Structure formats: structure tokens, C-alpha cells
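tool_call predict_complex ligand=magnesium ion
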Amino acid sequence: MVLEIRGLAHDYFSGTALSQIDLSLGKGQHSLLLGPSGSGKTTLINLICGLLTPQCGTIRICGEDMGAARGSEADDIRRRHVGIVFQTLRLVSALSLFDNLLLAQRLQRGGKDPATARALVAALGIEHRIKARPAELSQGEAQRAAIARALVGEPALLVADEPTSALDGENMRRVADLLLENAERTGTTLLIATHDERLKDVMPNVVELTPPGAQRRVA
Amino acid sequence: MIGLAFAYLRAHPLTTALNILLLGIAVTMLVLLLQFGRQVGDRLEQDAAGIDLVVGAKGSPLQLILSSVFHVDQPTGNIPLSSQQLLKRDPAVERVIPLALGDNFRGYRIVGTDEGLLGLYGGSIEMGSLFDAPLEAVLGASVAAEMKATLGQKFLGSHGLSGDAENGGSDHDHAAFETVGILAPTGTVLDRLILTSVESVWDVHGIAHDHGSQEHADDDGHAHEGDAHDSADGHAHDDEHADDHGEEEIAAVGLPGTNPLQARSAGPQRELTALLVQYRNASAAIRVPAMINRQTEMQAAVPAIETARLLSLFGASLDGARLFAWLLAATGGLAIFVALLNVARAREGDLALLRVMGAGKMRIFGTILLEGVLTAAAGALLGIAAAHLLIGLAANAFATIGDLGIEPFAFDPLEGVIFFAVLGIGAVAAVIPAARIFSIDLARTLARAT
Ligand SMILES: Nc1ncnc2c1ncn2[C@@H]1O[C@H](COP(=O)(O)OP(=O)(O)OP(=O)(O)O)[C@@H](O)[C@H]1O
Ligand SMILES: [Mg+2]
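tool_result ok
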């Protein structure tokens, strides 16, 4: 199992964000995390990535217990197994697009592989922007760059929070296809959080989150 | 991660440049102070080595030392030729070296003396021979190099001790010196002197030493009466300040003055400017200066004492300036601190992302620390380079600095200490901004960041 979640729940002071989540993703079992705004998608992703500590339940990534990991242990599990694309934050601001990719490779793989990075940006259609600073990229370009950044490390699990929200229909499809294509190649399992129902067409599995708390699983 | 540190520094080029500049200025000051302090001290010590006592006309003892040991100030006046014999007769005195100053060639002082001066500084003839006949001159190594002098070359001395036209008097065109020898470099003041015999200096000034005639006295316009006023205070040429010859005449040799041993005299004398004395034994140190100061109209000054006085005066102002420079360096550190703190919040998102990408806290902490250290290193290197460049330029532009014989590209090990101290300032300045990485809440930061 790439990802295994049992009885997960999380409350903020303001109220319950997630309750009783069970989710298992085997290798190659790409899933869509679908739910309206405020349904807890980001919260779940933060828990999976070890950025938040669950109050209840377990999270295992590639067999390692992320839920119980503390501090640098969580960092380590994340670094070895998880690639992340965030809703807003995409690239390190001081580095060019391409340097961001090389840095990500270094951090996650321990070495640079410019050829792979180049192939990736070419496939994402941002090849002409590799020298650009993050601030000089359009929203869509930045989002594709963030996907490239998360993929260059070839992680076992790629979680993406609204990776296609800034893209138009055509680019959305293209990115979704690229995510799937790359996932096949590198054996990465995708978990994509979105409120964009259009992605249902491309992703086989859908996990639906409904606010507040209630959760339904669709095979 | 060093690439990332550079990238962040490049992201704010103006701030980075200003911080580097600020530290650079501080380091420039520190290195300049260090270099001047050390080189001047070394130089003074070296030039005064072996001279136990200087005997000259009454006046400021410091001025006497400066003029006759370091050859930078105007002499205090003249002393009678007989004083040389007086000291030579003293059994406690090993060596007496006469000095007759008054002229220069392109700012290099022409010193009437004997071979004793060479011995004092360990000088040796590299080419030619020592002066012998009247108007033969031996050039110090720096003088020869500067003049591109060859043996047999003739030159005219100018009146006064500095080369500038404003101050320099007329050329002594009736008496040209001939270069008969060139000295090997000694690294002392000797390198910048032109040596000749005392008699030659008298000749140039029209003082007839051969037959004791005084008829040339007025030839070059230095007519004065050696009056009671002169005798009273020992300043041989007070009156001359009023006339058109200006200050350089204080230095003129062979001018009418006072013979301190014979209370009064009139007319030009065969005189000397100062005597450099080396003792034979320690007892002389007590007796000889006391004898000179009490029983003659001359003064005896101890180079070691005056040099120490000079260095302590100099040292106090150096300490003040040094304190200021370190404060400036601290300000540079503060500027780095403020700059890093300013960007810290804007950068929180970046740092959180770096963490998510797999960079450990310590690694990111190190990167930010490195930014401070790199800025400091750039400032320190800039400062050290600028200081040495400035010394080089100053040595070329200002004769006095050149005269002190300051070496522009001699690196002091203490510059390494300054370098690492400044690196330390850079690191300390970056610690607090860098430490924020330990308190970043990743989930919140990533949710908020845009
Ligand atoms: N740090 C927080 N502190 C308190 N409450 C929070 C915090 N983060 C999220 N919440 C709340 O938890 C619930 C789930 O938020 P979450 O960000 O997970 O939703 P989401 O599905 O990602 O929404 P969106 O599609 O708008 O991004 C919301 O009601 C939100 O207000
Ligand atoms: Mg969200």
C-alpha cells in the first residue's frame, strides 16, 4: 500500500474539519479527492504530508507511520516518498524555474538530472520559461512548474492540492494527462484534491468529502 | 545550498550591495589603521635603531628627532662645528655622526655627513664609490631608482627640504653635485637620502670652509647678524621668517648663528644641523644628555623617548579611530540583520516550501547564516583590497606617506583576524533571522502564502 488511512479525524478550534476517514491507495491507484470548498481537502493533505499531526487515526505511507512521526521523522518520510503540489505556493522565489527543479531533485534524490527535468518541462509546455523567475510566470505556467517540481523527485505518492484550478479547460486536461502519464512511468500514485468535477473524466477513483465531516467513498 | 544563498542575495542586489559597502568601508578603515600603525611603528623603530642620542639646536626635541632621524620635519636650527669634537672627545661616546641639512633634490634630502651614517643603517655601496671630493654625492637606493640615476650624472640641489616649488628656494646653480655612488637598498630612511660630505653642503651655501673666510656670507642673501636674541633662545634664524625666503631657511646650513660654546659670535659659521650619537657604555646615557643640556646651548634628545611619545600620541588616536571602525563594522552587521529580518517574513513561504521539498531545518538555517557570512566575506575582501589600494595611491600621491616608506601590499596576519571577525559579525547578524525557520508552522504558512 502506498497510502493507508484508518479512522482519521481532525478538529480545529473552530470545529471539526475531518472525521472518520478511511482510505487505501495501492500502487498506481490514482484517486481524486473531490469536495466543495471547506470540506477539508487541504486539511487531509496536510495530515498525509505530516505537516499536521492527526488527533485520531493512523496514516501510513509506503508502510511508514506518518501519523506517529514527529519532527524530522515526518520530514524524512515526506522527503523519501511524497511529492507535493500546493494550492498557492509553488516555487522558491529566488530561483529560476529550472533551478527550482534541480534543487528539488537534489533534495529528494541527492543528485541532479537535468535531462529528466528538461523532458518534464517540455512535456508540460513550459520549456521556453525555464530561465524565468517564479514572479514572472503566469498563474497557469506557475502551476505547471509546481507540478514539474513535485514530479522531478519521482516520489511514490504525489499529492496535489488544486493543481488545475488556475488552468483553462485545455491545459487542465493536458496537466491531468501529464500527471497520469508520468505517474505510469515512475510508478507514482496520485492523490489529487480538487473541487473541479471535470477531472472525474480522467481519474478513475474518486474520494468525495462533504462538509461538515461526513464522508463517502466511491469505488 | 550555497547556490541558494547566492540566489537570495542576488534577489535583493541593492540591499546586498549596500551591506557589502558598509562592511567594506569599516574593514578598509580597520586595515588602514592596522597597516599605518604597524608600518609606521616598525619604520620608526628601524630608523632610530642604533642612535642613542641626537644633539641639535634647542627647540622641540620631537622636531629634532623627526628632522635628523626620520628626515620628515624642519631642523631646529644649527649647532657649531666644534660640538662634534666636544662629543668625540668624550670617552663614553662610541660614534658621532654629523648631519648638515638644508637642501633637497626633487624632495630627496641632501645630507652632509660622513661614512658613519652608512654604518649606522648597514648601508653599502652598490655601484661606484663613497663621496670623497667636494660636491660628490651618493644616492640612496630609492632616490637612484626614482631619478633613474647613473654614475657621473650631475644634479643641482634646491634650497629647502621639500621639493615643492612653492616652498623650495632657488637652485644652487653655481654648484652641481656629481653622482659618484649608489647605495644598496636597506629598507630604512637611508634609501631616500642623498649623501654627501659636510664640506660639500658648506660649499653649496658659499661657506668657505677651507680658509675660514666669511666673505661669502651675504652672497646668497642670507645676511644676518648673530645678535643677542639669537643667542638667548637658541633659535638661530628667527629673524628670517620675516624675509622672502620663508621657512626653509631654518634648515639652511652654514648660516650665521650662535656658537653656544662661545656665548656670542657674528657672521657665518661652519655649522652642523645635528649630531647622531652612539654610546660606548650605558653610563653615557645619564651623563651625556645632562652635560649637553646644561653646559651648552644645544639640546640632547633621545630617539627612543621621542619615538615612544610619538607612538603613544599616535596610538591614542589610532585607538579612537579603531573603536569607530569596529562600531562601523557592527553597524554593517546590524544592516545585515535588518535586511534579513525584513525579508524573513516575505520569505517564510519559500522556507516552508523548501522544508516540504525535503530540506532539513538545519540546512535552511545554515543557508540563511551563509547569506550573512557571504555578505560579510564580500565586504571584508572588498575592504582589504580597497585599503591596500588606498595605501598604494596615497604613497604615490603624498610625499610624506611615501617618505615613511609604507609598503602598500604587505599583508599583515592581523588582517586575517579582521577578516574572520567580520565573518563572525555576518554570522551573528544572521542568527536571529535564520532561527525563524525553527518556529515556522508549515501548514499555516503554506495555506497562507501566495
Ligand atoms: N488553520 C486552521 N485553523 C482553523 N480552522 C481551519 C484551519 N484551516 C482550515 N480550517 C477550517 O477547516 C475546514 C476545512 O478547511 P480546508 O482548508 O481543509 O478546506 P478545503 O477543502 O481545502 O477548502 P478549499 O477548497 O477552499 O481549499 C474549513 O472550515 C476551514 O475554515
Ligand atoms: Mg484547500
